[in-house]
């Protein structure tokens, strides 16, 4: 089990990575804001039930939330632990990278069936970047009003602060990788009263 300060830092890092406020995570986890705040500050030891709710609210397994890393500079994610999501429309994506609190990087492997349109994704905050490499098939990437077709072995970089869409126009499946560094806008800080530091 992690010490309370390390656990709190991990919870806060995962919350920030997902762009959630304390209130939003507390609502999703069905715990009080004061409890969540105390956990994040390392001031209160949560019960296993509270930890499980926080893990659910963050979308991570409880074991991953409380695991004591052997070396925080090296985090291994085994193939069996990778999260694969079956999306509407028949396409599939697998998150290959470990979750590292405070690091907004992810590497995803996606497979689109023939003729599949995965839809349009919103622009991320300025400073976001995506690299795409096609493993097999044909990928149609649309960036705002520009369209690029990529084949097996092709790759592309784009600043991800524009809307972007992925589609497979071909009659065979397309598999591609996305390496993304996604910046999240900073939450507005409450104004301090005049004279406050």
TrEMBL record:
SUPFAM superfamilies: lambda repressor-like DNA-binding domains, RmlC-like cupins. CDD domains: cupin_XRE_C, HTH_XRE. Residues 11-65 form the HTH cro/C1-type domain. The keyword Isomerase does not apply. Keywords: DNA-binding. The keyword Aminoacyl-tRNA synthetase does not apply. PANTHER family: HTH-TYPE TRANSCRIPTIONAL REGULATOR (PTHR46797), METHYLPHOSPHONATE SYNTHASE (PTHR46797:SF1). This is XRE family transcriptional regulator. It comes from Streptomyces lonegramiae.
């Amino acid at each position: 089990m992690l010490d309370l300060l390390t656990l709190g830092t991990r919870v806060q890092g995962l919350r920030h990575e997902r762009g959630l406020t304390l209130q939003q995570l507390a609502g999703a986890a069905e715990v009080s804001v004061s409890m969540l705040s105390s956990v994040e500050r390392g001031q209160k030891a949560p019960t296993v039930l509270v930890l499980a709710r926080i893990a659910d609210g963050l979308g991570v397994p409880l074991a991953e939330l409380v695991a004591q890393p052997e070396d925080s500079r090296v985090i291994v994610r085994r193939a069996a632990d990778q999260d694969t999501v079956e999306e509407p429309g028949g396409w599939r994506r697998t998150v290959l990278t470990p979750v590292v609190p405070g690091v907004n990087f992810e590497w995803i492997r996606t497979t689109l069936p023939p003729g599949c349109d995965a839809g349009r994704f919103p622009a991320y905050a300025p400073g976001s970047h995506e690299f795409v490499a096609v493993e097999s098939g044909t990928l149609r990437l649309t960036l705002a009003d520009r369209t690029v077709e990529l084949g097996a072995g092709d790759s592309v970089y784009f600043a991800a602060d524009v809307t972007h869409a992925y589609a497979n126009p071909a009659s065979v499946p397309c598999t591609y990788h996305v390496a993304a560094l996604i910046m999240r806008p900073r939450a507005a800080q409450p104004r301090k009263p005049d004279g406050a530091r």
